[in-house]
Amino acid sequence: MHGLKLVKDPVHGYITLSEEEVSLLDTRAVQRLRRISQLPLVYLVYPGARHSRFDHSLGCMFLAGEFAEHLRLDKDEKALVRASALLHDVGHTPFSHLLEELLIENGVSHEEMSVRVIQQDEEVSTAVEGLGSSVKEVVNLLRGGSRLSGLVSGPLDVDRLDFLVRDAYFSGATYGVVDVKRIIRLTKLLDDGPAVDSRGMGAVEELAIARYHSFINIYFHHTVRAAQILLLRAALKLSGELNFAEMPVEEYLGYDDLTTWCLMKNKEQTRGVVERLERRILPRTVFERQYFGDMGPRFSLRERMEVESEIADQAGADPSKVFVDFSYAPPLTKYGPGEIRIHPSTADESWILKQLSKPLNVVRVYVEKDVQPVDRVRKAAEEILSKPG
Length: 389
Hints:
Strand 3 and strand 4 (193-197) form a beta hairpin. It is built from 19 helices and eight strands. The strands form three sheets. A three-stranded mixed beta sheet has the order 3-4-7. The chain has a three-stranded antiparallel beta sheet with strand order 5-8-6, with helices on both faces. Strands 1-2 form a two-stranded antiparallel sheet. The model has no long low-confidence stretch (mean pLDDT 92). The chain folds into two domains: 5-219, Hypothetical protein af1432 (Orthogonal Bundle); 283-389, Alpha-Beta Plaits, CATH 3.30.70. The protein has 389 residues and is mainly alpha-helical.
């Protein structure tokens, strides 16, 4: 066992890393993930939900190794898929998906930022090469160009298998019940990517149900989203300084939850929001509607602000005290339930997968607690958000 490092993970147990993998783990870019919350501000509802992107990335690396062992990948493929799993989130913004909206507004995703970090950060690229892999191979796998890509980015990837059970564990919400080992052990690697043995259909359906409940009860919890939209609005006031999409990688890696929080606390225009979050003083919900399938609206940040102004104007309220939230859960698969490959294929299509492959959209309107009467805001929200198109 000389040269191997053991890390005790509360979700998966002991995780074993080689010396070369420890070198990758110890890079500044990967260690930064310790200071980026997996579920930003969710601890205001679920106090235990304080785990980080680092914890999740390490768990993904472990599961990639489990897949590699089961599929009998050779040494090089195993090293490649484990490194790719560890690095898949290395480009996340502070506060994870919450501030990723600042990237998306500029046409960039956290996946693209991860690629930038892997390609441009010399410490990371050197550590990747030390594993016997290349930056080109890792980027190709993360972008879907390898037969192994589906293990790291696909409907049944290590990302999803880890975050569902991890988020359930740390939140204490028992929705993430997924038989991860069964899915791994019943996965086959075909020439064009992974597929699950038909005997694993029950475990796959279980994952789809766990994902649905996790979105409804944890990620889209009305109080969680109230806190998150408050923080997002504060970040938008500093969009000039927090222009993540345009930053050089070296500067970008200097931003994490702690530095961003302190920046906002030290700025006069955002200090009040941070102090409110510290005291859990949040806006209240006055309107909510769920859309299951393709019926719900999908608005950009800019469009959301326009709707806020429209509702406030119609209700005679201060627009700075009205918040519109569009929480969107993408479909389980991009191209329908058939994307989850069952081998050998079965003629009986899963009703559960068919239903839960649809996107989910929750639309809410919040107001500050001093806005009166709230009925006028609620009525305006119902009228405006019920308009076709």
